[in-house]
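If your schedule permits, I should be very grateful for your opinion on a structural question. The matter concerns a single protein, recorded as an amino acid sequence and a row of backbone structure tokens. Could you please explain, in whatever detail you think fit, how the structure tokens follow from the sequence? I set the record out below, with my sincere thanks for your time.

——
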Amino acid sequence: MTHHGEIVQRIWDQLSPLEVIKQPLTDCVGLILAEDRYATFDLPRVPCSGVDGYAFKSADTVSASREQPVTLAVIESIRAGVLPRKEVVSGTAARIMTGAMVPKGADCVVRFEDTEDPGNQYGVSPERPGSVGFVGAAEPWDNIRRPGSFSKKGALIVPKGVVIGPAQLAALTAHGITVLKVVRRPVIAILSTGDELVRAGRPLGTGKAYDCNATALAALVSRYGCIPKVLGIARDNMDSVLSKLRRGLATDALITSGGASRGDYDLIRLVLENKGRVVCSTSTIGGGGLFTFGLLNSGFEPDAAPNIPVFALPGSPSGCLINFEMLVKPALFKLLGHRSFERPQVEAEALDSFPGSRKTAVLKWSKLEKNNGTAKVRLKSPDECGMFASIAAANSLTLLPGGTRTNSGDTMQVVPLDW
């Protein structure tokens, strides 16, 4: 998929990550951390138990065995979050729960299951015993979490450039961190063009079609961590197109569908030529259609430097979605602050044939499967089930090479989709 890679690189070179802002921790999911964050204290802060069991002096059980258990008096029960009230001395033990602070005097913990505790195999004891037998020797620090064993004060816990997810939230929250510096979430304007388009929910006249591209693009923009702003439908005249585009000039980028080709009423490219700059305009690998990327002058000012990225996608729903996946998605990652973009690809065995040979390569909606640990891909023709059913059932795009027929058993290059 070299052709797409070359276009992505040209687009990537024109873009920069957005500015850094401070944001509450819980609003940062999916964003890029813009600073290194360090542990603000040791975790755990005190020695605590790693299991439910008994805390005692290891020297008391040196001679313990199943044949000759050592019995210790139980002096208290300690749960997590509650400070021990008594000191453990020789001949005594404290019941202790996972995460609880180890009492003074104890140097090890043994699980309930490794004692003669009446409830050791069955959960909570109906009665807390006054004494308990130990059936094996223990070593100092057995089952005790040392201070700083989770993280040391001053240690790097989450580095700059990482995507904030559940694991990062847990690590940061554990250290009391509530605000982060992150790369701002981009606002992406979405505009459909065409006299034939009707907003869903309105009557559909003869020769008209519902605008499905805006719905799909808004979902994809949200899926990859950006904020969609749907501008509606521009009609096939310059006044309507310019009016709609003006509403998107305050956003971080625009995605249009329709009007990207060279037809009599394809006006998006013309706007870019007159009020900005076309960076690249090309027919992508078969299935994608014509794609144009350019920069638009903010406010349409004649002397302003082009600075608003515009991704002009074809009006065909299939081509629109393919070009978003292959060309727009990497660009959104750059705006979000990702340092690189790598598209996963797998080799899979074709489970069926695709009729006819093609002069050029084609990207085909497909179904990627695992069969006995081997990747397989199903290439059901849209002619059999229809374009929309084919798209809705797909979880991948498969490259059909040009100049040859695709047969069952062929090894194919497949791009998995994470939609």
User: Anything to note?
Assistant: The chain is about 20% helix and 30% strand. The mean pLDDT is 91. The longest strand covers residues 362-371. The helical segments are 2-14, 166-173, 212-223, 238-247, 268-275, 317-335, 382-385, 387-393.
